[in-house]
Amino acid sequence: MKIVDVCALYSPQGGGIRTYVEQKLAIGPRLGHEIVIIAPGDRDEVIEHGPGARIVTLRAPHFPLDRKYWYFEDEQALHAALDAEAPDFVEVTSPWRSATMVAEWRGAAPRSLVMHADPLSAYPYRWLGDIFSRPTIDWQFSLFWSHLRRLGQSVDLVVCANRDLTRRLAEGGIANSATIPMGVEAGRFAPERRDARLRAQLLAECSLPESATLLIGVGRLAPEKRWPVVIDAVTIASREQPIGLVMLGEGREKRAMLKRIAGNPHIRLFAPKRSRDEFARILASCDALVHGCEAETFCMAAAEARACGLRVIVPDAGGAADHAASGGWTYAAGDPVAAAACIREAIERPWRPAARVRTMDEHFAELFARYEALARPFRRVA
Fold first, then answer.
1. Where does the Glycosyltransferase subfamily 4-like N-terminal domain lie (predicted)?
2. What is the distance between the alpha carbons of residues 340 and 335, in angstroms, rounded to a whole number?
3. Residue 43 — φ and ψ, nearest 5°?
4. Which pTM was predicted?
C-alpha cells in the first residue's frame, strides 16, 4: 500500500514529529508499504530515504513564529503533488489549513487526520483554565470545534495517541476517533544503557554528589511545555533533599528559562542531543523524568524514559498521563507545589520499572492495518 503523509509539522530541525517521521520512513517499507512524506520547505525537492521511502518538499513560506518550520500556502501545488503520487491512503497530520486542503483534494483515496497537536490544551485551556471551566472554554472556542467536526466528516479516521484526547473528540462530536498509542524505537531505549560514570558527571554538573537524585526534563523551550512548573517544582522539592535537574531543550524561551533558573547550581540547561544513542544513554543514567506539559498528544519523552527504567512524574492530563498508568506519578497540571510533592513521593517510594514499553513497530503495524482495512473497498471499486 502506498501511504502519503501530508505533514505540515515536519522540519529537519524539529523534535518529536521529526523523530516520528523518520521512524515511519524506516518501518513502513519493512511492513511492506511505500511511504511518502509531503512537507513544506525552502524548495521543491525529493529526498530519498531508501527503497520505498522519501520526503517530497514543496516550496513554502516560513512559519513566522518559528522559522525552523514552514506552512502550506499553495493548495494547487499540494493537490498536484497528491495527484502525481496517486496514493492508496492519505494522512494529514495537522488540524489546520493543510487538513482543509487535503479534505478538498478530489482524489478517491481514503484519508485520516492524525492528531499530532492538541491546540485547545496547548493554548486556551492553559491560558484560561484558572478562570473558566473547560466546557465554558469549549463554548468560547465553538468555531474551532465546528472546524474539527467538519474535518472529522471529511476523513475516514481520526487518530489520537492518548485516551483523553480520543474521549474529548468523541464527546465533541468527532465520532470516528480512535486511540492508537505510539511507542519507542525498538532496541534503542533500555535500562542497560545506564552509565554510573555519566550519572556522576551529570550530578557534578549540578554541583551535587552521587548520592543525590538526578532528574531529567526533555522538550522544546516553548510556553506550552510548562517549563516554569518543572523548574519551580524541582526548586521547591530540593529544599528538603539534594535533587539535580538536567534539562535538554532549545527554543525561543531559552532566555526566559535561564532567567527562571536564576543561577540555581542544581539545575542545568543543555542543548538537545542529536545522537539518539547518546540521548538514550543520558536518559537511562538519570533517576526520573519530570514533565510539565499537559498538551502532549503522546509524550515520547515519557515513553522513552519508561523504556529506560525511569520513574515518570507527569501532569494528570493529556498524553503524558497515560504513561503514569503503568507505573508513575501524576500531579495537578500546572501546579508546581503539587509537582514538588509528587517528586518527593516518587523519590521516597520503592520503584519497579515497567515490564515493557510498546514499540513504534507495534504502533505502525496497528495503524497501517487500520489503513488497509479502510482502503480495501476503494481498491475493489478501482
1. 15-176
2. 9
3. -150, 165
4. 0.91
pLDDT in tens, 324-374: 987 699 999 999 999 999 999 999 988 888 778 999 999 999 999 999 999
- Chain centroid to CA 369: 22
Domains of the chain with CATH codes = 2-183+360-381 (3.40.50.2000), 191-348 (3.40.50.2000)
Pairing of strands 53-59, 45-48: antiparallel
The residue among 344, 339, 309 whose CA lies nearest residue 327 is: 309
Q: How many C-beta atoms surround the C-beta of residue 279 within 10 A?
A: 19
For cell 536518559, name the residue.
Answer: 283
> Sign of the CA dihedral 339, 122, 157, 76?
negative
CA distance 29 to 43: 26
Tell me the C-alpha distance between 105 and 114, whole Å.
17
- Whole-angstrom distance, CA of residue 107 vs CA of residue 91: 13
